[in-house]
Amino acid sequence: MDAASGAAVAALAISPGDHVLDVCAAPGAKLCMMAEFLGDSGSLTAVDISRPRLAACRTMLRKYDLGRRTRLYLGDGTSFSLLPLTGTSKLSPANVCDDQCHNEEPTEVTGNSDRLCKGGFQKDARAEITSLYGEWRSGRTRQEKRAAKRAKYLGIPEQISWDDRAPELFFYGVDSGVVGMKVADVAQTCSDSQNTSLRGYDKVLVDAECTHDGSLKHITKYEQWGWETFERRFLNEDRIASITSLQLRLLSNGFRLLNPGGTLVYSTCSFTKDQNEGVVGRFLATHNNAELQEVELARQWPCSPGGLPHTLRFDPVSSNTSGLFMAKLTKLGCGPSNKSEVGGC
């Protein structure tokens, strides 16, 4: 991972016990870094709209054994509303059994291919068991495999509109809070409750989709493909307008789910002001409860000031890294109008 990308995670100052949200998680290097900072308490929730890229995140988490407290969701970061699981599970991992426990046939668990043992539960509670999550295991159900095969045959792209679809729970660790929870409880959103003190996330990373014109990895590719291709795909006027609109919506939604007093870091690997200072400036103009914060660690970093107070820029010449823009924001007590935000702010 590039050092500048790691700086975006470091700026969050994640501590054990934090509830952390990664709005654009793929391909997963920053996600793994956040999981390592989190340690043995708190939770990490990540969302991405691309199934193959989210699968890469899952592979990295499992490879480095960093996914125990993590939930991965396939969904749209501009509308994602699921809250962190802060309560205790109704069924501890110790109660989740393999196929041999109690020598009884297992019961399918809703939402994945895991199983729970029937033995040891009261008869009137057995109907409820079928809606509880067991430990995550790799593999998809027959229905999921058939749906994927049909989608591939019909040429349906993996990255689709999620306007009318709930996020799909793609992976969850044994200590993520999911195991033993009811499906409805895991899927609770900030719009499901009238409780204005509902707990959101302590730290949010919005490493937004961008034109990648500051990424050394992408620049190397376009040296081979041709700069005309790069300009046509990423730097035309319509593309810039579309992507800055997406970035603003990602930033706004991440902030909506942030706890008062919490920290959000917005970053891109683009050099353009429209995608960086422009997006942050437009956001601040409509959110009086948002405030830019100094990144104290940056005093030791080879970066330069951005075009807004406390924002930072990395570049290949002065920083010896890929290009990166970073803005650190905090949510103040309560804003003037947006009652849909966590905590009523």
TrEMBL record:
The keyword RNA-binding applies. Pfam families: Methyltr_RsmB-F (PF01189). It comes from the Eukaryota. S-adenosyl-L-methionine binds at D48, D76, D207. This is SAM-dependent MTase RsmB/NOP-type domain-containing protein. InterPro entries: MeTrfase_RsmB-F_NOP2_cat, MeTrfase_RsmB-F_NOP2_dom, RCMT, SAM-dependent_MTases_sf. Belongs to the class I-like SAM-binding methyltransferase superfamily. RsmB/NOP family. Keywords: Methyltransferase, RNA-binding, S-adenosyl-L-methionine, Transferase. It comes from Ceratodon purpureus (Fire moss). GO terms for biological process: RNA methylation.
